[in-house]
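hiii so um. not sure if this is the right channel but i have a protein structure encoded as tokens and i wanna go backwards to a sequence. like what aa goes where. can anyone help
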């Protein structure tokens, strides 16, 4: 078996299933566990990844529109020559978000150019937590390790349930209103699985719906709901890059009057490694939220590593 994973979360899933030894290639974003960084890279973005959040957003949107209107390549490119060289038996990709990672269509276009590669494509689509659990089982089944998938799901769910057991009895008055920001300029709230994680961590999610793509929002909407907690976890950004965008929020009229700002409850998180990556470390994402929302109850040691105070 020869596996190529073209999304970072899939790489983590394959490794968590005990299949690391069969990985022969990865996407440009796959960086965890550390050992996978030595694997050949099979993709690249078709846009300049440096610049301001506004510039990155405009570049990605432009490529996405071009892909639809001109039936062109998507936001990312898969290297057909690498597929030919590596001869994978399985390629794991996603159909959840065409702007966040290599899409199913990108992979299909690349494979059409490689006549002698008959890899099985495993496409994951985790729109919410139920889908996430199913994606683990889907990957395990296709890779012939169904029992390992069952064990992995049970282990991860057990860790999550231990947190939910402590937060479930909390009355609504003890659940702080939470705004989780997935992009700063333009402003976007977190959707998909994040609202469920906020609920499980003992919070009241104010923006975004479970199972639906992350919605755009305005600062006026943020100000009107006046969250008790603001979590800034931009898609694809680490902590250092996230802190660079903080002044964009601080410059908004009325920022200092927000309850979360006044109470010192604005937190920055590594969205790239945790919140935006639907892999096994969604459990750590829940732990991070639990530490932020209820510091008296939870302390997992993530502060200063995966998140920090603004």
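sure thing!! here u go:
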């Amino acid at each position: 078996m020869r596996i190529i994973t073209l999304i970072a979360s899939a790489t983590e899933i394959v490794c968590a299933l005990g299949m690391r030894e069969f990985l022969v290639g990865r996407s440009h974003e796959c960086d965890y566990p550390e050992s996978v960084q030595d694997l050949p890279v099979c993709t690249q973005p078709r846009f300049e990844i440096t610049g301001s959040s506004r510039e990155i957003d405009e570049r990605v949107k432009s490529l996405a529109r071009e892909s639809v209107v001109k039936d062109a390549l998507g936001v990312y490119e898969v290297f057909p020559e690498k597929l030919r060289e590596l001869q994978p038996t399985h390629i794991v990709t996603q159909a959840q978000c065409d702007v966040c990672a290599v899409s199913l269509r990108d992979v299909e276009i690349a494979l059409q150019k490689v006549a002698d590669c008959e890899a099985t494509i495993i496409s994951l689509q985790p729109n919410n937590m139920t889908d996430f659990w199913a994606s683990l089982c889907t990957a395990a089944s296709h890779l012939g390790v169904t029992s390992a998938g069952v064990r992995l799901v049970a282990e991860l769910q057990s860790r999550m349930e231990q947190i939910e057991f402590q937060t479930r009895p909390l009355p609504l008055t003890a659940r702080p209103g939470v705004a989780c920001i997935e992009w700063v300029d333009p402003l976007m709230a977190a959707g998909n699985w994040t609202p469920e994680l906020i609920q499980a961590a003992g919070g009241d999610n104010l923006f975004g719906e479970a199972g639906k793509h992350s919605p755009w929002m305005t600062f006026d909407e943020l100000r009107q709901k006046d969250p008790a907690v603001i979590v800034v976890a931009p898609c694809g950004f680490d902590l250092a890059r996230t802190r660079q965008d903080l002044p964009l929020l601080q410059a908004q009229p009325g920022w200092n009057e927000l309850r979360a700002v006044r109470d010192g409850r604005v937190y920055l998180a590594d969205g790239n490694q945790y919140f935006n990556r639907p892999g096994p470390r969604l459990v750590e994402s829940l732990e991070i939220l639990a530490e932020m929302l209820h510091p008296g109850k939870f302390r997992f040691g993530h502060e200063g590593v995966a998140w920090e105070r603004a």
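oh and The first strand starts at residue 3 and ends at 5.
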